[in-house]
Amino acid sequence: MGFLTFACNPVVITPKGPLPPTFTPTVTITPTPMPTFIPTCGISSSILYSDDFSNSNTLVNYEYLDRATGRPIGIQITGGELVMTPNGASTGYNGASGAELLVKDSVLSHALSNYTLDFDAKMDSLPHTGYFGAAVRGNLSSPNMTCYQFILNDDSENAVPYWQAQLIYGLSGNGTQFMGGGYGSGYSAPAYTAGTWAHFKVVCQGINIACYIDTGSGSLLEYCFNDTTNPSGGVGFSTDFLQLPNLVHFKNLVVTSCP
């Protein structure tokens, strides 16, 4: 293991939530690069929590917070998957729905700082149909919900789907984008094909967070950044801006220690 220097310029974004289609956000770039350590976990890692979603009774192990007030998302465990179904009551950018879902503190302590999150996920359709991905070091205390997200963002602000790493806080979606991400920007590679499984991996160790993605051609280190805002918190899944008939599926959730 060693130290590498990245242009980890956080981008402060506000707001980030259901917005009128004509809204043009203001983006402020913090110009100081941060030296970043790429965290790797030792061979003594052990499984802290896992769920293959073969039993619908494990749904009680999770808590979630709807991202869109009045448009609750449907969440169920079926066929070896946890499935999120958007609310079909309305359409358009401000008619979408999503959720932050975490393993409950009583099941996996939210006081944990160092761990690795692995799971597979897929979104049924593209383009401009929402985002999906990982949540780490999160808590769902409304209205001050916060977590780090590693997501594929395909909502309508993006010309193409972008992989983004960000810290969000509050239901309005205020937050900080890391390493070149922002409204309508991020890394477009590797390409994602709708309806196919992608493997997400997020490693949290100290102040360092590394985000890996595998869309079928091998695992790639997509983002590596450091931040001290959330030193600990729960793990799970992030979705938002989903519209019918676009469902998001998750499976093979594993959380391991990161000594």
What are the SSEs and their pairings?
Layout lengths: L2 E3 L5 E4 L11 E4 L5 E3 L9 E5 L10 E5 L7 E5 L2 E5 L13 E5 L11 E9 L6 E10 L6 E9 L7 E8 L4 E4 L20 E8 L2 E7 L5 E7 L7 E7 L7 E10 L2
Antiparallel strand pairs: 1-4, 2-3, 2-14, 5-19, 6-9, 7-8, 8-19, 9-18, 10-15, 10-19, 11-12, 11-18, 12-13, 13-14, 15-16, 16-17
The CATH class assignment is Mainly Beta
Can you say what the CATH homologous superfamily is?
A: Exo-inulinase, domain 1
Query: How helix-rich are the residues, as a percent range?
Result: under 10%
Mean pLDDT: 81
SSE string, helices as H and strands as E: EEEEEEEEEEEEEEEEEEE
Which overall shape is indicated by the principal axes computed on the Cα atoms?
Answer: globular
CATH topology category name: Jelly Rolls
Largest sheet: 9 strands, antiparallel
Rg over C-alpha atoms, rounded to the nearest angstrom: 17 Å
Strand content: over 45%
